[in-house]
Each structure stands twice: as structure tokens, then as C-alpha cells.
Amino acid sequence: MSHHSHEEIHGIGYGILVLVWLGLVVLTGVTVVASGVHVPALAVVIALLIAATKSSLVVSYFMHLKYESRIFHVILLMGIVTIAIFIGLTFFDVLFR
Amino acid sequence: MKNIREIALEEHHDFVGAKMGMWLFLLTELILFTGLFILYAMYRVRHAAEFHAAATELDVVIGTINTLVLLTSSLTVAVGIEALKRRNRKLAKWMVLLTVLFALTFLVNKYFEWSAKIHHGIFPGADELLSRSQGEIIYFNLYYAMTGLHGLHVLVGMGILLWVYFLIARKPSEKVVVAPPNIEYLKGAQLIASKGEQESWVIDEIKDDVVEVEVVIKKDPKKAGVDIPNIIKLENAGLYWHLVDIIWIFLFPLFYLIT
Amino acid sequence: MASHAIDVQNAQENYLEVKGRWSGILSWIFSTDHKRIGILYLVSIAFFFIVAATIGIFMRLEQLTMGPTLMKPEVYNRLFTLHGVIMIFLFIIPGIPAILGNFFLPIQIGAKDVAFPRLNLLSWWLFMIGATLAILTLFLPGGLPDTGWTFYAPYSIRTGSEVSLAVFAAFILGFSSILTGLNFVTTVHRMRAPGMSFFRMPLFVWALYATAWIQILATPMVGITLLLIIVERLLNIGIFDPTQGGDPILYQHLFWIYSHPAVYIMILPGFGVISEIIPTFSRRTIFGYKLIAFSSLSIAIFGSLVWAHHMFVSGQSDLANIIFSFLTFFVAIPTAIKVFNWVATLYKGSIRFEPPLLFALSSIFLFSIGGFTGLMQATLPINVHIHDTYFVVGHFHYTMFGGTIWALIAGILYWFPKITGKMYNKKWIYGAWALMFIGFNTLYGAMMYMGWKGMPRRYYDHLPEFHTDHVIATVGSWFLYTGILVLVSTLIYALYRGAKADANPWGGTTLEWKTSSPPPLENFEKEPVVEHEPYYHEEAIR
Description:
The complex is a heterotrimer of chains A (about 100), B (about 260) and C (about 550). Chain A has 4 helices and no strands. With about 100 residues, chain A is mainly alpha-helical. Chain A has 2 domains: about 15-65; about 70-95. Chain A is flat, with a radius of gyration of 18 Å. Chain B has about 260 residues and is mainly alpha-helical. Chain B folds into 2 domains: about 15-170 and about 225-255, Four Helix Bundle (Hemerythrin (Met), subunit A) (Up-down Bundle), CATH 1.20.120; about 175-220, no CATH class. Chain B has helices at about 5-10, 15-45, 50-55, 60-85, 90-120, 125-130, 135-170, 230-255, and strands at about 190, 200-205, 215-220. In chain B, strands 1-2-3 form a 3-stranded antiparallel sheet, with no helix packed on it. Chain C has 17 helices and 2 strands. In chain C, strands 1-2 form a two-stranded antiparallel sheet. The longest helix of chain C is centred in the middle third of the chain and has 35 residues, at about 250-280. Chain C is globular, with a radius of gyration of 23 Å. At the A-B interface, helix 1, helix 2, helix 3 and helix 4 of A face helix 2, helix 4 and helix 8 of B.
């Protein structure tokens, strides 16, 4: 616990935060441009991948998850797995009805 | 001199626990929106073409601007937290205030966007909307439900940030409460003894592997004061705000960019 | 003797005597002490239970004769809805976690309180607000909802009864449940006493921990579903309305994504109570500690994968039917692991047949019947035959009433001396048990039987061929109800006139038995240090 705590206080410099923000802005641009791609199936995948990348940037740096102890990672993982299960299993009905 | 454990006993605060509670709460928010994302996914699979047609009616420019506004507000609140941790109360105040302003900008944009749609007769239950194909009706109903719930979260987040702003803006209280699990928060902190003559103390360097609480408190009246409990309050408010941002990161491409 | 006197003098006041900022009833409803909050829940939940049970009695009376007996069909619809809503949302979901969990989770891990005491009090307030709103529908023009407790769309969107308010009440109750879960997970992670590693935690704590995770991860799903019903009714945002392209089956998906895991929110803490009682009364350690602990987690996981087995005849895809039927059988595995381990614990133990053990064993027995009939319904072809019949009603009451409520009663009997410092009259409890056990099996056994023959659920009236079965069931309900009243009065009597109880009347080994009865405000005279696994009986054969 206390191993990470040092970085928690002085870890993230303002510079890193601004860099992350720049990355997010660039990715927003990419996703707007990429939406012009005229392959519908691919477009969804690209849009979701970019959104996932942006979210993981926000979670890791803005929300400090990168510097938190393991239990916080487990908590997030529980949420992601649950969401995947709920969405995935519902598709077994709707796609095959 | 007051032992840190004695101070802790006066009021027990566990900052890591508080943050854990916040993360668990964020999970529940995520699942709340998941319900809507499930519905979106299922209806979109069924009405792919109509969803694409309906999406052309949304304004990508306003959507993109709002995305950038929220992303920037995430940056400002993150900087604010960092500043408060470094006991830079002034910068923290400004950053939180800026975040609130961005939130307001987002809502104003959203207001104009919704009004334009409503003006054109595209709102739930309107004859104009109901005369369209089922896929388009569902698209716009989902649009209103999802951006509406998201907007509500923006509003709540704004309220929380404002509340924290006033906490930070207040003069630091004379009594600072800390608990053994939170020693990491004490580095460089100013401690003011709560009883007897008012004296301030700065804690000695704490090694990373220290878990128990034999802490030496030294006098250093020069450092500016920040209420330590406010740090965790701002951190939690920030976590909530970032979640609002993340939801929008998904809403934006799913509604605006599927043309 | 002298040292004893000193002990008494130095002892802290117990939590019932402590004078805080408030007095009288305010000292309860504004208390952030987890023990007082547990009792707040006990009193309010017991009240709702009696109300809903009384409604059940009236429903049974209606079925005593063919044709109209007491009420109109519309009233019957509203009553079974109210019975379901109160029993599910106000009684059995909060039930064990809010009452016994609040009281004993912190004590069993050696903590002074839960992680967020004020949030804990807020949970109770939200619970009461939700309950008040639900009851308020009775006095509004639309009247009580008539949809059944599941609020299925599209009927729930169109009916004139006060569905919006009732659904909003359920939303608030869900929020209360989430906050309790969040509190418990954080408490378990952050508040354990020195030496209390995860594998030294009592199994009740493990069960509550698994339950809390379901509360956090599943409850928001019903929250959004119910919110959508409200916006659909009030703002016409059609999401499930077929005329606007909506799909009512998706409502059922969203509803059961929560409401199936919710039955594990109901039963898992009950299993936890049983896992506490069995080692104490067999005077030996639990058999297969880790397996029981992990089976709680795996029930929580498997339980989240099976929701659509409520929808086999709804018109969902055949593939979904097959997959969900298949997955459902997996839940039986961890459940059976628990039962086998309990039996193995009893084997060659020095069993003392006290009231808590009696109720715990009855709970295992009744739940097993409910569990096996559950497997029958998980089987697709059988399900089509018995779907929406009294068989389902009987099965559900065997699992939830037989499993959870009997375990809750077992838990209350087990911890009553600790909570109140008083002991009840065991003979009266045995009498209550006999009445309840006979009544229970007559009532729900008859229901299963007539359901198997084809009696549909939620019908106001019945055909002549079901008449005898209905009469038997109704007579059974009288025994059951009387038994419950005897039980409750015995406990209330004991509260005032009961003999003083020791700190450890049953010879329990977990931490709550190492403090006085009732416990002091901060639970222990000094912070306990844990050196053993939880069910360590010193005198037992090892």
C-alpha cells in the first residue's frame, strides 16, 4: 500500500496531465475523421476502440488508477467483466431470435 | 505534544477507504449506464440503417465541441487535485472553478442542441417523430434518454465540484484530523494541535514502508495550510467528474459519428 | 469475586445504555452505531414482513371458495403485487444483510463500526423513504399498482394504477441496498482487526462480502430499468413500447439481469448464517472452510449468468433458451458443495439440538426441496409445462421463505442473546417451529402439487378440480401464520422478561462471542488480535 503512496502525492506532474489531455484531443480528432470510413462494421469497431483507449487514458492518469494499489484494479476489472457478460449474453437472444 | 494516534481517535477518517467507496460507487454508475448501452446495442443491431439515417440529423460540430469541453474540464480538475496535494490552494481553487465553468458550457451547448431538435418536432411523443420509421423513433428516444441521464450527471457533478470549491476556499480549520492509514497524505502537511496553544507542525519525512505511526512532528509555521480531508473530497469529486467524461467519450461516437 | 467487581466497574456501557446527543426514539433514528442501525432495520423489516404475510393470508382466504369470496379481482391483483413488492424489496432483499449483517459484520472482523457509519444511517433513511412512497400509492387516485412485482412492460406503461411512484420507491430502495453493499465491501477490505486475514474471516462475513458485490454490480441495472418505466410513463420516451419500435422482451432481460442475481442477494447471507450455526452446535470446526467461502463467490458469479431462464416462454431466441438453461445447472454445484460441507461438519460432531440449529437444519431441508424443484424448472421442456403455474410459486417460497427466512429466524435466535442480553423460552420456540413447519409444507407443498396439475399463478379464481388443494393450502397458511405470531411474541416477551444471557451462551468461537452481551458501544473493550481460524474449538478433537 505505502509503496505506491509516495508517487500518489508527488507522482503526476502537471506536464504529464497536459500530455494526456493532448492525446485525448488528438484521439477525438482521429475518431471524427475515422467516422468517414464507409465500412459500417469496421466503423463501429474503430469508434469503440478509440473510445476505449481514451477511457483508459482518463482512468490511468486523470483518475490515478496507475498509481493505486491492486484492489482498485480488481474493482475496475469486476465492473468491466460484469458489463461484458451482461451485454454479451443478451446478444444470444437478440442476434438469434 | 499530541500523538498522531490520539488525533486519529478523535475522528476516524480512512482516506483510502473513502476512495475505495467512491470507486465502488462509480461501478454502480457504470452499470446504470450499461443498461442503456445494452438497449442501444440491441436496437442498433436490429435497425442499423435507420440509426445511421437518424444520426445524420445530429450536429457533429456541437458534439465535437462538447467532447473537447468535457475533456478539458477533466484536465482542469486533475490539475486542481494535484495542486491541492502540493498545498497550492490558490491554483486548486482556480482549477475547480474552471471545471465548473466548463460543465456549465457543456450544459448550455446541450440546451441549444436539444431546443433545436425540439423546435423541429423531434422529441419523444411528437407527431413528427412518431410518423417516422420505428428505428428512427427508438434512436431519438434513446438519444434523449441517454444524453438526458448524462446531462443530469453533469449537473450533479457540477454541484459537487461547487461544494468542494467552497470547502477549499474556506480558511483551513484549526483542527486537522488524520488517521494511521493515511500517513501518505501527511507528507509536507501542516498539523495544528487541536488543544491548548495553537501551534503548527510539519511532519518529518516518512519512509515508504512505514505503516505504523511513530511520527515525529516538527514545528514549521511558514507552510501554508490546506485541510487534509479536503484533498480526499476533491479527489472523489474528481473521480466522479472523470466518470461523467468517460460516459460521454462513449456516447459521442455512438450517437454522432455513425453516419 | 473482587476481580469480577472491578471488571464490571471498568466495563464500558453497552450500546443500549449509551447516552449520546439524542434521547428516546431520536437516539435510534439518528444513531450511526451499526448495532442500533441493525435494530432499526430489524424493527422496520419485521413490521413489513407481518404486513405482507397478512396480505398473503387474505389472498389465501380469497382462494378458500370458488368465485368471489372477499374481494374483487382488481383488488386481488393489487394485493398480490403489494405482497410481492413488500416481501421482495422491503423484507427479503435487505433482510439478513441489513439486520444481522449490520450488527455482526463489524464485530465478526473485530472492527468498531462499518467503514461509512453515516452512509449506513442514510441507507436506513432511504429504505424508510422508499417504503413510505410505496405505501403512499395506496392513497393516490390510481391506487396500488396491479402489475405484479415484476412491473412487466408494456402493461406497466399503460395501466392507470400508480406504477410510477411505486417504481420510484423501488428505485430508492435499490439505492439503499447499493449503499449497504458498498459499505460492506469497504468495511471488509479496510477495517479488519490485526491478524484477521481473509481466510480467518467467519463464513457469514464471506457470504455478506459476496452478496455485497452482487448488490453493487447488479442493482443499478434494475435502477435504470425502473427509471425507464417512469420516463416512458411521464415523458413518453418510448423504449419498451412496441408501437414506438420498442421490445418488451428487452425489458424482461434488463429486469432479470438484476432480479435473478437478487435471489442470491436473498439466499447467500442465509447460507452464511447456517455456516455460523452449524460449527457452533456441532462443537467442531467447519468442514471445507475455503470451499464454502469460494462457493459463495462462485454462486455470486454463476448467479449472474442465468437470468434469462425466467424467460423461456417469452419469445426470446431458442439459442438463448438453451444457453441459459445449460448455465443454470451450474449454480447447483456450489450450492451442493455448501450442503455437503454442512453435513460433513455435523458428522461425528457433539451436536446440541438448540433452537437455532433446529431452524438452520429446517432451512437446509426446505431449501433443498426448493433447489431441486428449481433444477426441474431449469430444464427447458419441463419449464414450458409448468411456467407461470403455482409450481413456480411453491418453488419460490421453498427457496426464499424456506431457505432465507428460516435461516434469518435461525440467525435471530442464534444472536438474540448477544443483541439483547436476554434469553428466550426455548419450549415456546419449539412449539412455534412445529406450527410453522407443518403449516409451511402444507401450504407450499399443496401449491406445488396443484401447479404441477396446471393451476396458473396470479388467478383470482380456480376451477373445481383445484378446490381441495386450495382449501388445504389455505388451512396450511393459518398454521404458518400462527407459528410466526407465536415466535414473534416469544421473542418480544423475552425482551422484557427473559433471563439474563451470558456473553457466550452457545459456546460460539467467532469474535462476537468474545465480547459482552450486549456488546459495548465500540464492540470490544480493546481491539482484538486474531490468532486462529474462526471455528477453533479448543476442547474439540483435532
